[in-house]
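== Protein entry: sequence and backbone fold ==
=== Local backbone shapes as whole numbers ===
==== Amino acids and backbone structure tokens ====
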Amino acid sequence: MTYKISASLIVAATAAALPGLSNGATTPASGKPVSLSQEPVVMRLSKDEFRIAFGINADRCGTRANGCNGVIRYRVDWKTEDGTMRSEIKRVSYAVVPRSSQSLTVDRQYFDTAEGAHTTEIVKVSVDMITCVDGAEARSARTASIAAP
């Protein structure tokens, strides 16, 4: 039952994020290699479990033949039903496959002061940083680290 609910929510998040991926804003205005296609989409799965989806524009990320990957660092401001406010910094990785300019990544998080004790609410999700590494560079670094004695 939980799997079906999770899968349905992920499909819904994908559908919500995909229109933003093709809304004409595919080239980042800032000149950065990657950007978000829209604000992160937050889905509640239970009283303290959430999925946070990020749509990624990657027109300038590496070469199209190699794809790219990176990390999104983001801050989540949340509060419990008793009014306790917290802020946490999280990271989620993403990958853009070769010859693609868009991607989607979803992070699974729990937010509560005690496991399952409160119903929590996400107040705000803000992205602090998005890194981007060309797929060929990432493969070279992996190969070098494996070959090193």
About this structure: The chain has one domain: 2-147. The helical segments are 2-21, 135-147.
